[in-house]
Design brief:
two-stranded antiparallel ribbon; elongated
Length: 183
């Protein structure tokens, strides 16, 4: 019977990846490890009560299309930041439940975002829906690979940032299409 594969001890690498603050000569974690800002204080949440409130204001004619698009972009980016933190936690604790929760959060976020953009005039939403499903499947597959990888924590954080960047890029392309449409 063979021995189970050994996990690599990455503590030395992790230590080397930390930064030294020259003013205090103390080690600090990399900025990528910081938690996101308190999203409850975000101006959109305060003023409109989230993306639904923004859409209600737009439909009522109280805010312009450009402001709506900008607000939805900020809302979506904030939600992606929340998803990134959830994904990082799922990878850190390496539990299937945390991973499933993060994947469902992303799926729900993308569906909601697509619905809002549909209300703003995005065409071919059924095709976009299929694209989102494929993107979510690719994201899930990539997350599982990161979760199972024998990498240092900082490398996993970077991989997660790249994975969520795919989501951000897709959202930006949809937003450009909606923004380029004239009323």
């Amino acid at each position: 019977m063979s021995d189970p594969p050994r996990k690599t001890d990455w503590t030395e690498v992790e230590g080397a990846l930390q930064r030294v603050d020259p003013s205090t000569d103390k080690l600090q974690e990399s900025p990528e490890m910081d938690a996101p800002p308190d999203l409850q204080q975000h101006p959109i949440v305060q003023k409109f009560g989230g993306a639904k409130g923004v859409m209600m204001e737009f439909q009522a004619g109280r805010i312009r299309r450009g402001a709506t698009i900008s607000a939805l972009k900020e809302w979506h980016r904030g939600q992606l930041e929340v998803a990134k933190v959830q994904i990082q936690e799922a990878v850190r604790v390496h539990t299937a439940q945390a991973s499933v929760q993060a994947e469902k959060f992303l799926e729900t976020l993308n569906q909601e975002y697509l619905a809002y953009l549909g209300e703003l005039g995005l065409k071919n939403t059924a095709e976009r829906q299929q694209m989102i499903i494929r993107l979510n499947e690719q994201t899930s597959k990539s997350l599982r690979q990161v979760m199972d990888a024998d990498w240092p924590e900082n490398m996993k954080v970077t991989a997660i940032a790249n994975i969520t960047r795919m989501q951000e890029t897709f959202a930006d392309k949809l937003l450009q299409e909606v923004g380029s449409r004239s009323d």
